[in-house]
Amino acid sequence: MIKNIFGFTLSLIILITIAIALYWQHKKPIPVVIQAGHEGRDTGNTGAASHGTQEVEWNIIVANQVAKKLQSWGIETKRVDAKTPIVKAKVAVAIHFDGAQIPCSSGASVGYQNSASQKLAQKWKQVYKQYFPFKWQKDNFTKNLSNYYAFYTIQAEKFLVLELGEITCKKERRWLKPRLKTIANLIAATIATEFGLHPHIQLK
Ligand SMILES: [Zn+2]
Fold first, then answer.
1. Residue 86 Cα, ligand 1 centroid: separation in angstroms?
2. CATH topology assigned to domain 29-193
3. Which of 7, 98, 119, 144 sits in a 20 to 30 Å window from 129, CA-based?
């Protein structure tokens, strides 16, 4: 009897596991997932801060605007915070600003894991390099970029982690602040090219 119950439970667990795996395999990916880095975190890695500027606040402004723009162009977009759910996506982008021990030693950078993402990263750098007048770091220059924790929960065909600039650098912070929405529009326009759209963004 005990043996039977054990065998039955085991078979049931195996069946459920297979059912979940099949469901996941056939689940349609969400076109775009946008994450605001550190959003919703009170402890742990709560993000960079400098002279009254909280990275997370800027991340939220940018992420909201990226999602709004994409949706206005008819591209289905899901906004998530730092405690990401497990989701499947075609394109995912995490929004961050960097902080550095030595002010003005960092700048902008990109993190990713596969070659499809690397291509999208090149596209983004081409766009942002024409606008952002400060320093760039090499791609994947920190472990937070090359091995971003959400790579494992947001399962995306292409996933970029964007550091959009350094908030611990005074001149950079001052340049970035009034341009957050324009930067968001540039990110949205870059993502839109993945869906065959080529919107034009007015630079301010
Ligand atoms: Zn960050």
1. 20
2. Aminopeptidase (3.40.630)
3. 144
